[in-house]
Amino acid sequence: MELKTTPTPVQDIITTVVSSLKQNDTFTPMFYTLSALLLLSLFLLFKLLLAASRSRHVRLPPGPRALPLLGNLLDLDPELHSHFATLAQTHGPIYKLHLGNKLGIVITSPALAREVLKENDVVFANRDVPVAGRVGTQGGHDVVWTPYGPEWRMLRKVCVLKMLSNTTLDSVYGLRRREVRETVGYFYSRVGSEVNVGEQMFLTILNVITSMLWGGTLDGAQERESLGTEFRQAVSEMTDLLGKPNLSDFYPGLARFDLQGVRRQMIGLTQRFNGIFDKMIGQRSLKMKKEREDGGESKSKDFLQFLLELKDEENSNTPFTMVHVKALLMDMVIGGSDTSSNAIEFSMAEIMNQPEIMNKAQQELETVVGKDNIVEESHIHKLPYLQAVMKETLRLHPVLPMLVPHCPSETCTVGGYTVPKGSRVFINVWATQRDPSIWENPLKFDPERFYNNTKWDFSGSDFEYFPFGSGRRICAGIAMAERMVLYSLATFLHSFDWKLPRGEKMDLSEKFGIVLKKKIPLVAIPTPRLSDPTLYE
């Protein structure tokens, strides 16, 4: 929106001062210094008056009072998902926040989420890329942060068709089964002892993903525990940095100073992962070269080999480079491991907190699988109550509590208010899925609300329940997340009973980040349920 302006009194004053300086050459250096300061002050005043004039011509959403320069930054609570939900109770389902030089718009209602993610999907299909996101993904050339356009469509197609399609996931069921059975064996070796459930879930999924990417896993109990802990810590630090308010994002002019050290920390973490990626890429490139020289071809190709072959093709309209290769590997390792493992950890915690839910889930498993058998993925579609458990977990604890922030490519209207081009738009799905006007007894973990209920799914078509987002930028990994979470939950509930260590109480509190985490890790004690020890091999 362009506004025509006429000269203001401030402009007249500036013009007069400048003219005087040009006509008079007898002033002292001190006068010039004071004059420069006066001009700067007048210029800033002019900018403020102009901004105020423009704001009167547009209808921005309401919002809390903001301080000059700082805006609302000092008022932000670290737990942004719940803090933003509280602000919505005062300011309504759409409100603005002044985040330094950045305007934030927070959406907390199904109707407004529909306007953003469906009715104006193309306009809001871009991202407001933070410094941490740009550094962590080779400059933002990945499927999460790349602007909407040919490059993004190419990257999403690569992920969805070659890595995350149902056909591909069916073909690597053996990998998932092997790793889940490996974890069952680990739990069985720790019967009667405490185990960190989230850590083991993370390691299981990491091994599945790295097997799909380049065929590598962590073997041996000691290596599983030590490297798994190291990997999880690194991934956790990366997702924390992605969700951390950063002055460099709110004041781009300060980005080069990296006042909070976010860029420096992210560079260090990215280099650790790039070291692994470089090693795997080097090994695979040599293998591919040798196969070409021998005139042979791989009988089976993993995702890394497919990416390297795609990079070498020259007939693509949108070039696929080594930068894209590493960025997509990072997407898979970070996006696939931390999200699903946290969902499983929250599920196990909520189930353990209500023994009747665990009993019902285990009874369903006994009916479908039997106590003289092990769970297979083919059983999952026959377990509607367990599916309801997963849906309820993602209602109460959505993996991305505010999705990934959107950024309109042009100024538009949402809910009758102006949302300026370049704003950072937060969709608070966490708050929407706990809205008492939508959900009965919303803070209670109750799978019955989803049991044999086909109204809600993961497609993003219903904006009362959309834990994976909606529209063009909906999560590409829904199919894999659904398989990993359900298969893991079914196996571990079927194989073991679970209880907290003596004297411990369940803590279900959350820790905000771009990925929602359990604030206190779930430590539990497994007890075998199956009478035949060979079923734990």
UniProtKB/TrEMBL annotation:
Q: Which CDD domains match?
A: CYP76-like
Q: Which UniProt keywords apply?
A: Heme, Iron, Membrane, Metal-binding, Monooxygenase, Oxidoreductase, Transmembrane, Transmembrane helix
Q: Does the keyword Transit peptide apply?
A: no
Tell me any Pfam family this protein matches: p450
Query: Record keywords: Zinc included?
Result: no
* Domain of life from the UniProt record: Eukaryota
**Mind telling me which InterPro entries this protein's record contains?**
Cyt_P450, Cyt_P450_CS, Cyt_P450_E_grp-I, Cyt_P450_sf
Annotated heme binding sites: C475
Listed transmembrane segments = 30-50
Q: What are the names of the required cofactors? A: heme
Q: Could you give a GO molecular-function term held by this entry?
A: iron ion binding
Q: Which family does it belong to?
A: Belongs to the cytochrome P450 family.
Name by which UniProt lists this protein: Flavonoid 3'-monooxygenase
Species whose genome carries this gene: Morus notabilis
